[in-house]
UniProtKB/TrEMBL annotation:
Listed InterPro entries: UDP_glucos_trans (IPR002213)
SUPFAM superfamilies: UDP-Glycosyltransferase/glycogen phosphorylase
GO molecular function list: quercetin 3-O-glucosyltransferase activity; quercetin 7-O-glucosyltransferase activity
Biological source species: Panicum virgatum (Blackwell switchgrass)
Keyword Nucleotide-binding: no
Key words, A-Z: Transferase
Name assigned to this protein: Uncharacterized protein
Protein family per UniProt: Belongs to the UDP-glycosyltransferase family.
CDD domains the UniProt entry points to: GT1_Gtf-like
Length: 391
């Protein structure tokens, strides 16, 4: 028995937010922890559940939540969606974590800590209540996280909710940010957004023993130093996680089936000749902006690979199929452009034919493009204004 105890590995429990841009870095982190000798269990929702077959080295346990329509409906208000997600997942997560602590489901390794997505303030709170040390994983930039921590103070000072007349004012202690750079979600109720952000910031202070940030000291040393100073807690810069993970790009977790035929299409293009266009896995634009994008690409004369996923046009009414392209667009761009519903982005950005990336400026996309040396043209999607500083 003593020998068995000596060989038992400590277990880390992960709990990702159930969206593509959060699941992927969490699983990269899990693969890294496993490679360093830790057992890893991923507690996850049934909604947007990850595929265990892609990570056989990790254990996956569903928490068996029951999400309301505010969470699962395509195009849901983001602030309301995240508040409802936290409310509905807290009890199921607590029960699943408590079962692991009891050795349920054959998971007999001692639980060393939990790593919970930083947006899941309810998961951080539940971990703390069970006596499990918890770290918050920030899948955004350190600069974004620092501005989020300042949100309660900025609200008290009248900087948020953001008003048009103050857009160009500098934000105290967050230079060089201006008010226009602060977190906003178009269409979301300002009070609900402030409530969500305050709960996220409060959970880190009350329930987390530190934060893990998908960034590097070389990219964001001043912001990381400020976070450590303001939190009086460790802030571990562990990124870019997609480079550190041993998983090859084709094996990456994705909630959509990627059209790998676009790689063969790129093979036939000259080096650095193609513009890659993708606005992320969640964000949506209006129909007018979508058509302007289409005709801008058509009129540019530049070869392009454009990701047009289901749900990428707000109010299109069909989230199961990509929105229709404008009449005449196919003929205008024939032989020069390729449109796909989803692309294997890491492999696309690493391809020699890619010369530039038109992006919504999400942090995962930013890291992937920077690491491949691909210049970016950034435009925010209509529903969100999440600041990614330095792009």
């Amino acid at each position: 028995m003593a020998g068995q105890e000596q060989h038992r590995r400590r277990r880390v429990v992960l709990f990702p937010l159930p969206f593509q841009g959060h699941i992927t870095p969490m699983l990269h982190l899990g693969a890294l922890l496993h490679a360093r000798g830790l057992a890893v269990t991923v507690l996850h929702t049934g909604f947007n559940a990850p595929d265990p077959a892609r990570h056989p080295e990790l254990a996956f346990v569903p928490i068996r939540e029951a999400f309301p329509a505010e969470v699962t409906s395509p195009g849901a208000d983001i602030a309301r969606q995240l508040l409802a997600l936290n409310a509905a997942s807290e009890a199921p997560f607590r029960e699943a974590l408590a079962s692991l602590l009891r050795g349920g489901g054959g998971h007999l390794h001692d639980v060393a800590c939990a790593v919970v997505d930083g947006q899941c303030y309810a998961g951080l709170r539940a971990s703390s209540q069970l006596g499990v040390p918890a770290l918050a994983l920030r899948t955004d930039s350190a600069a974004t996280f620092r501005s989020l921590l300042a949100y309660p103070r900025l609200r008290d000072a009248g900087y948020v909710p953001v008003t048009e007349e103050r857009l160009d004012e500098p934000v105290p202690d967050l230079e060089p940010l201006r008010v226009r750079d602060l977190i906003r979600i178009d269409g979301s109720d300002a009070d609900e957004l402030c409530s969500f952000v305050a709960r996220v910031a409060g959970a880190v202070l009350s329930s987390a023993c530190g934060v893990v940030v998908n960034t590097s000291e070389g990219m964001e040393a001043p912001e990381l130093a400020a976070i450590r100073r303001e939190l009086s807690r460790p802030a571990f810069a562990v990124g870019p996680l997609h480079l550190l993970s041993r998983a090859p790009a084709p094996a990456e977790q994705t909630l959509r089936a990627a059209d790998r035929g676009c790689l063969a299409w790129l093979d036939a293009r000259p080096p650095r000749s193609v513009l890659y266009v993708s606005l992320g896995s969640v964000a949506a634009v209006g129909r007018a902006a979508f058509e302007e994008t289409a005709w801008g690409l058509a009129g540019s004369g530049v070869p392009f690979l454009w990701v047009v996923r289901p749900g990428s046009v707000a109010g299109a009414g069909d989230d199961e199929a990509p929105p229709p392209l404008p009449d005449g667009f196919g003929e205008e761009t024939r032989g020069r452009g390729k449109v796909v519903a989803w692309a294997p982005q890491r492999e696309v950005l690493a391809h020699a034919a890619i010369g530039a990336f038109w992006t919504h400026c999400g942090w995962n996309s930013t890291l992937e493009s920077v690491c491949e040396g691909v210049p970016c043209s950034c435009s925010r999607a209509s529903r969100t204004r999440w600041r990614t500083r330095g792009t």
